[in-house]
Batch of 2 targets.
Target 1
Amino acid sequence: MMEEEVPLPPPTETVKRLWEAFRPAAARLTADDDIAASFEPEIEEE
Amino acid sequence: MTVREIGARLQRREISCVELVRSTIQAIESGDRSNSLITRTFEQALQQAAKLDAEPRRGPFHGIPIAHKDLFYTRGVRTTGGSLIYKDFVPEFDADVVAKLNVAGAISIGKANLHELAYGIRCNNAHYGAVLNPLDPERIPGGSSGGSAALVAAGFLAMATGTDSGGSIRIPASYCGIAGFKPTYDVLSRRGILPLNYSLDHAGPMGTCVDDCALAMNAMSGTTAFDLPPLADLKTVRVGVPDAFFFERVHPEVERAVKASLTASGARIETVRLPDFNELNAAARVIQMAEATALYINYSDASLFGADVWTNIQDGRQIFGHEYVNAQRLRRVHRKVLRQIWKTVDVIATPTTAITAPLRNEVTIDINGRDEDVRLASTRLVRGWNYLGEPAISIPCGKDSKGLPIGLQLIAAPYRDARLLQIAKLFERQA
């Protein structure tokens, strides 16, 4: 378990690419978009 | 041999459970070149077989030797997760699906090797040794359920359990040429499975064929819901083929084999427009990194982890809380689109992986003259379905010019698991 804090590393190329792909999508969310009541996929049984 | 074929021999008493387990043990001891097992439970397996020989037949899995990915709790048998953190962890109870398979009469011969903590696709486990692809030991088996896939592909077992948080059942199924099924999210219990990502983790079966997976789903769920009567043909089945993403940056031999399989199926092929899977995969990865890092943030000793897993955990610290929440919100947005698509098609068909099994030392791979990261080429067509929760299966649909298997991925609407398996059986037959 944590004995000393590991310094936060600078973002890797993987993280930078992830932000590039994810942030525009997240920016399009509006207040009208449902906020999930739970963090599970909420799949409706048909 | 398949579960049904082995079961028929047991039922006709051509072989006893003890003889079957003994021959399986001998085959593994003399023939496993893949380092497929972390822990062997051969003595317990023989005892269990003797007990089952004295009992009335319980069903299709009565006396069938299997293995559990070493992520599943097994009472009294250590469960390492492929990690040093859990190297001495001996659970006091069985995972729910392990318990159900025990009740069905399956006999576990051991705990299958995996990518450390199920967090990767190479199975180059730094602590318990790399898993090698039984079809070509210079190549990776895929992962994280690589040991399970290797045991089935080598012919030692008809079925093994796996887990899938971003393709970890379907990728090794594709690279090893077997069937691997990820059911709808939450259809199989996750109780007693070491987590990687709370909202992406799925348990599922890996088998020699789709029928093995269907029978295993019955056993793992304690129902008979997953083995529907066979379809005569696929003429009335509507197969959606995505108009973008899923056939881009895919090796030409993989693309040809998958498209040939669709043409030969006789199904009604329809083009479908899916949400942007670049965005969707990124959102899935945000969730994966945040949830995995949450589990292991309190460990500060990097020597407890393989270098790649440690890097992944540290990368997850870069995910902000609002990004995680928005990745979950986006999930609902994308699900709405999928709900409409499922009104128009029965299954969606794609390649499972953009490439066939890469060499162990390959980090990038050439696809149409462009370098592609092996991890992305392995995960980009499968990860999104964990995020959405749809059931998805990988089955072999041909071989490339090196003789390596090519995986076809079929996906269905949530809770259409049995129907998906029924359709997949016909695709498998014509392949």
Target 2
Amino acid sequence: MTREVGVRRALYEAHRAVGLAFGFLGLLLVFSGVVAIFVDDLAAWAERDRHSPPMSASVERLDEWLATASARVDAERRSSVRVFQRERDAVLFLFSSDGDPVFEAVWVDPVGGALADYRRGSIAEIFAPLDGQVLSRFFVSLHVRFLLPGRAGSLSVGLVGIMLLLLVFTGIYVHWPRRALFRRPRGARRQLLGAVHTLAGIWTLPFTVLIIVTGAFFSFATTVLLPALAFASHGGDIEAVQRAIQTPVEVPPATGQASASSICADAIERTNLVLQQVELKNWGEQDAHAIVRLADPGWDLSGRLLAYSGHTGEFLEERGSIGAKPSAGATTVEAVRALHFGTLAGATTKILWAIFGLLMCVLSISGLWVRAARTRTWRSQLLVVASASFPFASFLAVLAWAISPTTTAMTVAFGAAHVIGALAGLRNLRLLAGLTATTGLLVPIAGYLATDVSPFAALAQSEGASVIAVDGFCVLLSLTLWILIARGVRAAPSEDPSLAHR
Amino acid sequence: MAAQPQTKRVIACVSAGFFLALLVALGATAWLPEGAGKVNNLVFPAVAFPLVWVGIAVFLLGARRRRAWAISLGVALLAALPALIRL
């Protein structure tokens, strides 16, 4: 045996072992990631009955809103506040005090300027999701934590991501095609699946590497890496790290109180970007300053942070998103975020990312299917049909949300759908396709019943496009499945003669 | 149920890859420049960490020789040396 053959065999065996152990979880990660790309649209679909205009459209009223919000909170927290908007919410004023774990949050309606909501407590208590937000956060949590709590979930997802990257690298070495990459895959079913698996792997290679490397950054950086790296870089002095990264804004001595509205207006004029967040520190006290974050919604790497004096309203300096000044490291973190979330160039990259994500799903399922065709065991077939149950499970989770908007109900429905889908798929794949198509057609109806706002009524508001897009996708997928069933698509793997039970 | 020899091998190589990549990342904080924002030497090793991890794991899986383990360990220790001295 030559050395090259030995290497190929070793990597092939590793590819097979890792694929069998992590293929299903990898598919869960990729599929939920594709759904999570459209999390804003999903939130708009689920919350079509409430929406607020962006605060950037009325920055001249910021001082008025700040006065309304400040009057509601304790005096010791009034000097430090972050102002921003999340999802479909009103403008949020998040008040805090250094070292105090208790926050006070005041939501102000940007239309009438009235106090919309008030919460007091930890960050988790303040951002406890409303009914409509449960749906989008379920899919995000499925993607970033596998619904597991805390760091365990984040590290599990990171490990699965690393295993996917290992599969890609070993797969490329083992399966690199000797024929042209543009040739249409042909052959009997097993050979065809193998060719589809190889071509999907090759064509998605740059995207797969990009998405896993950026995703692994989120899984490992905050949980393990950055604390360890900060420890190593400053000889164990964590406070020195914090001083280096969070250099305070140097405010020239002055008296008086600047207008937050004027500061934001100047920042917008200076950058021609859209206001995203304002942070007011020591407001009304010594060293008062404001840090304004702006960005272009169409180009996610355009974010800028400007610092202003809180006394005179004078522009002081431009800062980095991490660290005192703009730097390659801070830009890299911004790029990692934009590339992983698909928000780099707005809707264009989101759609492109979704297409590549679906190709990664094809890659996973075809790999598991090839394995099932080779081993002919019921366990490998179960992995295939369980993988094919993800759309059905997602649709059923949405229906569960419409009945009971809790994460528990959605989790139970998602798990039960996998069991039902796998049992149905093992018997007849057409049955699983029928279940998926039926639940998919029910999703638009569920959205209407849960919110009491029809898609046509939603069209009159800003979220109408999202509602139509989500409903349209579900109906289109369902109709496609019905057409395939009607045309008698060959069921597999259980009805595939080559995969018959021994 | 006992793990298959191939599974044990994958676990060993992936685990070794993690620790060696961590060594390289820790060392990189010492020899990478901080930059204007004083974060470059923290961010770049964190971003490259998954690639280094998987790269080492694949190298160990494919090489099947003790020499590969020795080379990987040697390079990782060499990369980590400046940080280890500073600690």
